[in-house]
Every structure is written in C-alpha cells, then in structure tokens.
Amino acid sequence: MTYSNGTGDRDFYPDRFSYDPDNDCYCCPASHKLSYYRTRKKHDKILGDDYRNSKACQNCPVKSRCTRAKRGRTVFRHRSQDFLDRIDQETQKNLATYKLRQMIVEHPFGTIKRAWGASYFLTRRKVSVSAEVALSFLAYNLKRVINILGTEEILRRLRQNKKAILV
C-alpha cells in the first residue's frame, strides 16, 4: 500500500494512525484524538469521512513532521475501509501466492491493456469479444515466445515439426 503525508516522514503516514471504531475517531502517533470533521463526496456519491483535530495540531511539537497544512492533519477514512483492511490482511497473509499470481496471471492482462492500449473492446457481442480477446492473447504469446526463443529457434522447431508430420 502506498501512503504519504506531505512531509515524507514515514512515522506519520496514515497507516500509523489507529482507528477506534467505538468512538469513531483516529489516534495519531503523538496520541491526539482526531474526530469526525466532514463527509467527503464526489458527484453526490459518498467516498468517506475526514477526521482532524485543529486545536491539538496547532500546539503539537511534532506537527512539522506530520503535516504542512496550517489547520493541522486530516486523515481520510474510506466508506469501505474495514473491507479494504481485511483484503490487505489476507494479501499479507498469502503474500507468496499473491506474488506468484502477479507474475503468472496479472502480467499478460496489464501488458495487453496498458502497453498495447487495449483498454476497451472494439467489438460487441460475446462471440466477437471472445475472438478479440483470443487474438490479443495469441499476439501476446507469440511476442513472448519470440523474445524467449528468438525467431531462428522458432523457425528451426517449426521445420522440425513439419518433417515429423510429413513422414
């Protein structure tokens, strides 16, 4: 997970602030309570809540390490944060499997989607989209084989197989 706080001091990244669900507040690394401040929305959709304690931040001796904001530190809590935390725990628990999946499964999708610009389908209907996906993965696999074996080795193996089939 990537965190930041504007000052670059890792001791004050958002993951260092502990959430107290019973009191609906955060406790900062300097032991100050950050209470609910406002609900953050985007296009009339609730994203989450902001927590802060301006009075405590004004007199805090470590404020310069925590934030550059004049009014003090604000911590955002996503509406689905409990679920996101559970996913993060499961990922950390199964990190070896997750890293293996990233190497094996995620790379082709990421390459085709981002590097090749195939972020949406050009066709409609399941049969056409299936053909489009199949062609994309065929091209990915051919490119990968060429990078691994080289064109000369591929041609040599094709000639060898051709002889075996004709005999």
Put the structure in a nutshell.
The chain is α+β, with helices and mostly antiparallel strands. It has six helices and five strands.
What order do the helices and strands follow?
EEEEHHEHHHH
- The portion of residues forming beta strands comes to 15-25%
Q: Report the average pLDDT across residues.
A: 89
General shape = elongated
Structural class: alpha+beta
**Strand elements, count:** 5
Measure the end-to-end span. Answer: 58 Å
Give a quick account of the main beta sheet: strands, pairing sense, barrel closure: 5 strands, antiparallel
Poorly predicted runs: none
Helix content: 40-55%
Provide an overview of this structure.
With about 170 residues, this protein is of the alpha+beta class. Helices cover about 50% and strands about 15% of the residues. It contains 6 helices and 5 strands. The chain has a 5-stranded antiparallel sheet with strand order 1-2-3-4-5, with no helix packed on it. Helix 5 crosses helix 6. The radius of gyration is 26 Å and the shape is elongated. The mean pLDDT is about 90.
Question: Helices and strands in order, then pairings?
Answer:
Layout: E1 18-20, E2 25-27, E3 33-42, E4 45-52, H1 54-58, H2 63-66, E5 74-78, H3 81-93, H4 95-115, H5 126-149, H6 151-166
Antiparallel strand pairs: 1-2, 2-3, 3-4, 4-5
Helix pairs in contact: 5-6
List keywords for this structure.
2 domains; 50% helix; alpha+beta; five-stranded antiparallel β-sheet; 6 helices; elongated; 167 residues; 17% strand
